[in-house]
Amino acid sequence: MSQTQNSVLAKLEEIDARYDEIDKQISDPAIAQDPTKLIALSKEQGKIRSMVTKYREYKKATVGVEDARQMLADETVDSDFKALAEEEIEQLTIKQDQLLDEMQNTLVMADDMHIDAVIVEIRAGTGGEEAALFAKDLHGMYTRYADSRRWKVEQLDFSPSDMGGFREVIFSIKGEGVWAELGYEGGGHRVQRVPETESQGRIHTSAATVAVLPEPEEVDIEINPDDVVEHVCRSSGPGGQNVNKVSSAIKLEHIPTGITVSMQDEKSQHKNRAKAWRLLRSRLYERYESERRAERDSQRKSMIGSGDRSQKIRTYNFPQNRVTDHRINLSLYSLDKILSGDMGELIAAIRDHDRQQRLLNL
Q1: Cα-flanking dihedrals φ and ψ of residue 337, to 5°?
Q2: CB distance 307 to 186 below 8 Å
Q3: Max CA-CA distance within the chain?
Q4: pLDDT, tens digit (0-9, with 9 covering 90-100), for 116-128
Q5: Cα separation of 53 and 36, whole Å?
Q6: Mean pLDDT score of the chain, rounded to an integer?
Q7: Domain coverage including residue 45
Q8: pTM of this prediction?
Q9: Number of domains in the chain
Q10: Is the pLDDT of residue 100 over 60?
Q11: Do 211 and 321 share a domain, yes or no?
């Protein structure tokens, strides 16, 4: 058995023990009367239940193999029973390998699979109006892919450019496995094409930055309201004009971290406040999770899923109809399909590469 497999089995034994520990805690009357703790424990147990079930099947198969081998070594056992034992060893070994492979793959990707809501922020970079139009193209690519996956998209905030692009756009996507698939999109995106404003037909290079933040449920992260300062002001439109005459725009400032968020998409102060808190919660969750990952594994930064936003991750070349993901040196000559939302092949290649890297880093 390889060192990686031994590491996986050791981790699975820890998860199995944790499952039993949660069972005991849930049975504790004190915890049963605390809905917050009970919900958190039930969610944690639910996340690892299928893994524990498979691990216990694996251990049962291991015992079966050992019993069959003892029967083969016993000289008093007749040949018919030994033939059955050999057949059982073959079947159980196949089952062991299949279960171990499934558990290994699930283990390294488990944290990602259980996050089913993200907030995506796209900002135009260098390139002026062309960058804003590119930001709009990226927004369309993600929302169309979300539609194909039957995920729910909700617009949170946006700042339009003069030619109909986005200087900035923020939206949420909810659905099973959304973080596992879109969590790799954070970083610098570059486009090479002839802009609509270019009369000489020259190819320009523009850029946009994408951030993908896990959107935690309220039980996943607690924010002390005393740590947050709220500012209320009137929403402003193009040229600084007031969109409405009531103070509806909300700005939240988290004092301990210095993180600030602003929201003025809605005319309702109440709705802007709710959206601002969602965005703040996501940014804080990402920050705390990043710190936790850095402490747990210094090698995490070298992996695909590290989400370094300053990194140039992808180039969209219109003249060649090519998309190149620089992290895995992959070029696909189907830019038109990808921008229309057909991102499946691209995402699958990045996920597979990340899974291999995570296995090496176990």
Answers
A1: -70, -40
A2: yes
A3: 95
A4: 899 999 999 988 8
A5: 26
A6: 85
A7: 3-111
A8: 0.67
A9: 3
A10: yes
A11: yes
